[in-house]
Amino acid sequence: MKVFHKGELVKASELLKAFIEKYSSEKEILDRARIYQSICEARLKKEKIELKSFEDYYHHSLYKVNQGDYQEALKLLDKAREMKPKEGKILYLMADAYCLMGKIEECLEHLKKAIQLDKGFSILAQNESDFEIIREDKKFKLITRMT
After folding, report:
1. From the centroid of its chain, how far is CA 59?
2. pLDDT at residue 44 greater than cutoff 80
3. N or C: which end of the chain has fewer CB atoms below 10 A?
4. If you ran DSSP here, which 8-state letter would residue 84 be given?
5. Which residue in 20, 19, 2, 13 sits closest to 38, CA to CA?
6. CATH code for residues 54-144
C-alpha cells in the first residue's frame, strides 16, 4: 500500500498481483487487494496518452507540473525541446518545475535562457507565485532585472 500511495502504480500493481497469488485463500483481504489492483490498472490506462506534436508534449508537461509530477514533466519537456530547441515557454516551464523541486541553480539557468529568448518571461517570472521562494535571490533579481 505504501507503493500505491506513493503513486508508483506499475510496481504497486505487480506487488498486488503477487499478493493475490500468494494469499488466494484469504477472501476478505483478496477483495480489497483486487480493488486496489484494478485502480492501478485503470489509472495506468488513463495515463497512456499518445503525444505526437510539440503542443501535445508542452500541454501534458504543464499538466504534470500542476499535478506535482515534476520528474515526468521534465522528461516531456525534454522531448518538446528536441522538437523546438529555441522555444522559450519550454525553458520557462522547466525553470518552474526545477524551482518547485527546490533545484534553484537549474531553475535560474533555465529561466535565464527563457528570458534571453523572450523578454516577456521576465515579467511573468516576477509575478509567478511558484518563484516566490527565490524572489529575493540576487541571481533571480539580476536575471529578471528586479531592483
Report:
1. 11
2. no
3. C
4. -
5. 13
6. 1.25.40.10
